[in-house]
Specification:
This protein has 323 residues and is α/β, with parallel strands linked by helices. It folds into two domains: 2-171 and 219-248, NAD(P)-binding Rossmann-like Domain (Rossmann fold, 3-Layer(aba) Sandwich), CATH 3.40.50; 172-217 and 250-288 and 302-322, Alpha-Beta Complex (UDP-galactose 4-epimerase, domain 1), CATH 3.90.25. The protein has ten helices and 14 strands. Strand 5 (111-117), helix 5 and strand 6 (162-168) form a beta-alpha-beta unit. Pfam families: Epimerase.
């Protein structure tokens, strides 16, 4: 049994590949390395460099490696940038997913775990997001992820495809010292890179309707996320019933200022964040219940916020030292 992980050379994807390997499940990685890193793929795991838009290549990989399921993480993941690049976003996230599903149908691959996003909810009107919270994406990125979920649903009706979609919130930390987040847009790497460069990290807005005035978000550890991908893959392989959508959320959340204070604590670098203006479209609070995922996908918050921050800092500084 082999699972293909698209985007498996990226930050989240490499943790998913590691989690599969930790329980003895074989994987093959397909990644165009536009944001992934070849060195993130474990030794012994085949890496095919290519695009999910290349349907013939997908067919070839699925057939040659006798793939029995796919974890689909490849895509364009920058919500803010997607507003300026909507056509690129849709090509990668919608056309790319359709290409993958076509190749799977052609080669008889029966199961897929899809990397979706909290961006499908837009600005929720509830303090705690559940899977029943209405979807109202506010960016081409969020829209493209929702369309991806629809494609899986419709293919399930048409062909019997077994599938589930996991909606991520803010994925942070490191589950292995050599793997770290290299995104130029995520909060943890932005803070870390600022500190490493001797700059002061910045908070965008301090007048939100939250206890300390800064946005509250749901932060989950990447290793916990990866663990639940394996649980989902095993359930689909076994034919166990799964919901079509799960939130991987903490149920609690933390503010941006709390993140700054935690980073100062774990790094030993004392700083007072700079304060800038609000960013357009940032809601006060987005926190999700992970109750359904706990029931079905072995979802559990195994790390404190401090442990998340410390693991992220350790992995990034180790990489810097060894470079």
């Amino acid at each position: 049994m082999t699972w293909m992980v698209t985007g498996g050379a990226g930050y989240i994807g490499s943790h998913v590949v590691k989690a599969f390997g930790d329980v003895g499940l074989r994987t093959v990685v397909l990644d165009d390395l536009s944001s992934g890193h070849e060195e993130f793929v474990p030794a012994g795991v085949p890496l095919v460099r290519g695009s999910i838009l290349d349907t013939p290549l997908l067919r070839q990989v699925l057939a040659e490696h006798e793939v029995t399921g796919v974890v689909h993480l490849a895509g364009f993941k920058y919500a803010g940038v997607s507003v300026q690049r909507p056509l690129h976003t849709y090509a990668q996230n919608v056309t790319g997913t359709a290409s993958l599903l076509e190749a799977m149908a052609d080669t008889g691959v029966p199961a897929i775990v899809f990397s979706s996003s909290a961006a499908t909810y837009g600005t929720p009107r509830t303090d705690l997001v559940t899977e029943d919270t209405p979807t109202a994406p506010e960016s081409p990125y969020g829209e493209s992820k929702l369309v991806g979920e629809w494609l899986l649903r419709d293919q399930g009706v048409a062909t019997g495809l077994r599938h589930t979609s996991l909606r991520y919130f803010n994925v942070v930390g490191s589950g292995s010292p050599e793997l770290y987040d290299t995104s130029p847009h995520n909060l943890f790497p932005l803070v870390i890179e600022a500190l490493l460069a001797g700059r002061t990290p910045r908070i965008n807005g301090t007048d939100y309707a939250t206890p300390d005035g800064t946005c509250v978000r749901d932060y989950v550890h990447v290793a916990d996320l990866a663990h639940s991908h394996v649980a989902a893959a095993r359930a689909l392989t076994d034919g166990r019933p799964l919901e079509h959508v799960y939130n991987l959320g903490s149920g609690q959340g933390a503010s941006v200022r709390q993140i700054m204070e935690t980073m100062a604590d774990v790094t030993g670098i004392a700083f007072e964040p700079e304060v800038g203006p609000r960013r357009a479209g940032d809601p006060d609070r987005i926190v999700a219940s992970g109750e359904l995922a706990t029931r079905d996908l072995e979802w559990q918050m195994r790390y404190t916020l401090r442990e998340m921050a410390a693991s992220a800092w350790e992995a990034r500084t180790r990489a810097r030292t060894s470079a």
